[in-house]
Amino acid sequence: MTSAEMRCALAVAERHTLPVPRSEHEPDHVLASREVYDHSAEQYLEAVGSVVSPDFEAAIDVAVLTSFAQELASAPAGPVVDAGCGVGRITRFLADAGLDISGVDFSTAMIEAARSAHPHLRFDVGSLTRLPSPDHSLAGVVYWYSIIATPPQDLDAVWEELDRTLSSSGRTLVAFQAGQNDLIETPNAYGSATTLELYRHRVDDVVHSLEQAGFDVLVEVRRKAALKYETTPQAMLVAQRRQG
């Protein structure tokens, strides 16, 4: 191992140990979702794998991810966070596309699975409202289906944290199952004895909440359910901090 490789390995190891304290007043939906995903991380990894796959990402999804990576690569350099990274599938894809990206998730079990699957990448415990990043330090933040566990009325807190961490020229990519703010409840989710609550957000409401938080939506993609497990339309948004 060269000295440069050694420094890189030590840096990754150090970052893996960075603690992110949990709030004493976390919302019930965060506590319940964490319990489900902590219980089912291995099952989830076995079901979906650790890399982007045509079984779970349509061609247009991959095109949006690739375009986002290209846009950030041509902008001022800076770190990117995959917020709600799960087992690191999207983190890995965007890292392979050339981004300086790390993953953050509120599930310790998911983070451990991500670290095992992608030992060369950085993964930290955190949440959508508590990212382990300094103010205005990020070139990009990705929410790839991670806001689906957040009730519509709580999205403002997510965008407040985005506003804190995103640089003046930074961009965000948000993907989610689209609907009419429908609540989908799954009792005993993945055998966890906990009810998992997921939301199919209304696209116009998400756009409006981003705009109210000071962001301009540059790209809006909507597609019909196309993959075998999908039962609802899908939406992808790219936004940047409002200029001027």
Brief rundown of the structure:
With 244 residues, the protein is α/β, with parallel strands linked by helices.
Radius of gyration: 17 Å
Provide the β-strand percentage band. 15-25%
| CATH C-level | Alpha Beta
- What's the name of the CATH homologous superfamily? Vaccinia Virus protein VP39
Order of helices and strands: HHHEHEHEEHEEEHEE
Low-confidence stretches: 1-23
Count the strands?
9
Structural class category: alpha/beta
Distance between the termini: 48 Å
Report strand order across the widest sheet.
3-2-1-4-5-9-8
Structure overview:
There is one protein chain. The protein has 244 residues and is of the alpha/beta class. The protein is 36% helix and 24% strand. The protein contains 7 helices and 9 strands, in the order αααβαβαββαβββαββ. It has helices at 3-16, 28-48, 59-73, 89-96, 108-117, 155-165, 203-212; strands spanning 80-83, 101-105, 122-125, 138-144, 166-177, 182-186, 196-200, 215-223, 234-241. β2 (101-105), α5 and β3 (122-125) form a beta-alpha-beta unit. The radius of gyration is 17 Å and the shape is globular. The N and C termini lie far apart (48 Å). Mean pLDDT is 89; it is low at 1-23.
Features:
disordered N terminus; Rossmann fold; globular; 244 residues; 9 strands; 36% helix
Topology:
Blueprint: H1 3-16, H2 28-48, H3 59-73, E1 80-83, H4 89-96, E2 101-105, H5 108-117, E3 122-125, E4 138-144, H6 155-165, E5 166-177, E6 182-186, E7 196-200, H7 203-212, E8 215-223, E9 234-241
Parallel strand pairs: 1-2, 1-4, 2-3, 4-5
Antiparallel strand pairs: 5-9, 6-7, 8-9
